[in-house]
Amino acid sequence: MKEYFPNVSKIQYEGETSTNPFAFKYFNPDEVINGKTMKEHLRFTLSYWHTLCGAGSDPFGSGTMERPWLDIKDPIEFAKAKMDACFEIMEKLNIDFFAFHDRDIAPEGKTLVETNAILDEVVAYCDKLMKETGKKLLWGTANMFSHPRFMHGASTTCEADIFAFAAAQVKKAMEVTKLLGGENYVFWGGREGYETLLNTNMKLEEENFARFLKMAVDYKKKIGFTGELLIEPKPKEPTKHQYDTDAATVLGFLRKYGLEKEFKLNIEANHATLAGHTFEHDVHLARINGALGSIDANMGDPNLGWDTDQFPTNIYDATYCMYEIIQNGGLGKGGLNFDSKPRRASFEPEDIFLSYISGMDTFAKGFKVALKLIEDGVLENFKADRYATFNEGIGKDIVEGKVDFETLEKYALEHDQIKVKSGRQEMLESIVNQYIFSK
């Protein structure tokens, strides 16, 4: 296997005093915490699309990325070269997992039959590398948004033939994911939405979306795929009105169509903020509904209104996310997938490694801070005290469903002199700061 990054050695942990940009400051993969290594806790994952396929283009300019495999002309050899590079990057960064769309790893042919044959050849090569290295597939998915055929959507299209094509593509992608031992299969809506109601039958589109997902559940069971099925919420972009806007919208949709036991959520930071929420809001909402499946770890720029997919360096976002994950008992079959890309001006091959190091260190530090906060109970104790009135008396009766409006009116008439406690938000934020800044 050719080495594509000879200037980068395996990244080592050197501790927070290190000034070496090609070293981990907080991520010590072999450090054992509560019976598991840090690497096992965090389950870091390489995103194939950004890392191997990202060209650095934007709406105002062409690609800038310098990649050592770009001069390979044969499309299948080109795909295999990227696969080699993928496993080299994972090995040098001590990352165990990767994730991909079907069209990330293999190009389309002239027909679906030819496309599937090309995919099979690249998947066989991928399987070989996985067996040689021990690397694992966190999840697979199908790209049903890039090709012009999906301009009106895939499972929510106005064209029955496109619906059928999308089903065939997902069927194949699920088979490939199972073959490679994938631990999850993700549905990202892509173009599952609409621009204007002037030409849209929303009721039919949403019902077709549910029909599509039910078919996927049936096929999962038929082929014996034991991984989780995940839905990734996203607002707007590429369509103005996405049907999977945020965690709450997706949970409501799943319940409406009786699918809530079949799917969990893959929460992406930048998608949550584009929906007008904080990252931790959507993670928390998924967790308390028993639906937290996996995380796409990135961040957006509050000064830009689109999905910038930046590598995460916000320690508060990482801490609050890990706080939820720890309370969830971990991510199970999920992981922390860096759905992130180096900036357009960070175009040299080495910038791949520098970008991942920054994200991995941020989440490693956030994990330790969150764990300490939970162990010390400072936030949970405060919340328990704040809601203590619901543990006894009339509050306990409310929680247990023993009262009605008449009962509560009688109580309120007798207890109308109410003292309210402060929420102490600034104090709690200061405590979090103290934990982040302490050694």
Describe this structure in words.
With 439 residues, the chain is of the alpha/beta class. Helices cover 46% and strands 12% of the residues. The protein contains 16 helices and 14 strands. It has helices at residues 38-42, 48-53, 75-93, 102-105, 112-133, 160-179, 202-223, 247-256, 269-274, 279-288, 315-327, 350-376, 378-386, 393-399, 405-414, 425-437, and strands spanning 12-13, 23-24, 32-33, 36-37, 44-47, 97-101, 136-141, 184-188, 193-194, 228-232, 241-242, 263-268, 292-296, 336-338. The strands form four sheets. It has an eight-stranded parallel barrel with strand order 5-6-7-8-10-12-13-14, surrounded by four helices. Strands 1-2 form a two-stranded parallel ribbon. α6 links the parallel β7 (136-141) and β8. It is globular and about 80 Å long. The mean pLDDT is 97.
